[in-house]
Structures are given as structure tokens and as C-alpha cells.
Design goal:
Immunoglobulin-like; alpha+beta; 3 helices; 7 strands; 3-stranded antiparallel beta sheet
Length: 140
């Protein structure tokens, strides 16, 4: 085999690889974190304030992975209102979950009902009209 054939074969393989990558990338579905991204960006300072209040709060709720469950433990002495628990899946918004926690101080979610992978856990709650928020990344 001479140099010309080798270069032509290498060039053909390279072009085939690039075409495969283009087709593969174009067929991959990409979800944005949210549809109202710019509106959320404007209100981001309020989220940062809520996270700061949560970190400074002595009786803050806990989020734990224990055995076969995801456990959210709310403080018993303090009355929390508007308590919302989010599980966000970064690669598929159809697998996002939202739970309103009412009437209980312990919320459990079976890990068997969740697909393996990475989640962003967001717990937001209100005490005396002030918003608080916790964010955490977990892997199941």
C-alpha cells in the first residue's frame, strides 16, 4: 500500500467519525434547568438570602440518605409553613419531583422509586414570613 491510499483511508475514517459525532450530538435532547431562566436570575439574590438564613438557623431541617430511604427531618419545636421538597434531575426534567410536606415532621421517600443517578435536593420553607432554603446534591 502506498502513501496516497493510507492518507485517503485515514481521511475517510476521520470524516466518518466527525459525521457520527455530529449526528449523535444533534439527536441528544438537552433540557434547560428551567423555562423561566432569566426571571429566576433576577430573583437569585432572594434565593441566596434564603440559603444564608438557613445556614445561620440553629434548628435547621436535615436531609439524609439512610439505607433504603431519603429522610427529611423537620425541627419539632418550630412551626414551618409552605414546606416544599424538590428532587431535580439535571439531565431529565420529566423525572423531577415535588412534594408539599404538611402535617408531619418526618418525611421519607423510598430510594427504590428513584432512578439511579444524580439529583439536586431543594428544601424550601417559611418561618414567620421569612423564606429559608437548603440545597444539596445527592447520588443514588
Amino acid at each position: 500500500m502506498n502513501w496516497g491510499k493510507g492518507i485517503a483511508i485515514t481521511l475517510a475514517l476521520f470524516i466518518g467519525f466527525i459525521m457520527y459525532m455530529v449526528v449523535n450530538m444533534m439527536s441528544t435532547k438537552i433540557d434547560l434547568e428551567s423555562d423561566d431562566y432569566y426571571e429566576k436570575e433576577i430573583n437569585y439574590s432572594q434565593e441566596l438570602n434564603a440559603i444564608g438564613r438557613d445556614k445561620a438557623f440553629a434548628e435547621r431541617p436535615t436531609i439524609q440518605l439512610s439505607g433504603d430511604h431519603l429522610l427529611v427531618q423537620l425541627p419539632a419545636e418550630i412551626e414551618l409553613t409552605n414546606t416544599v421538597f424538590f428532587l431535580r434531575r439535571p439531565n431529565d426534567e420529566n423525572k423531577d419531583m415535588r412534594f408539599d410536606i404538611k402535617g408531619t415532621k418526618t418525611f421519607t421517600l423510598a430510594k427504590s422509586g428513584l432512578e439511579k443517578g444524580s439529583y439536586q435536593v431543594v428544601l424550601s420553607y417559611t418561618i414567620d414570613g421569612e423564606d429559608y432554603m437548603q440545597r444539596r446534591k445527592i447520588t443514588i
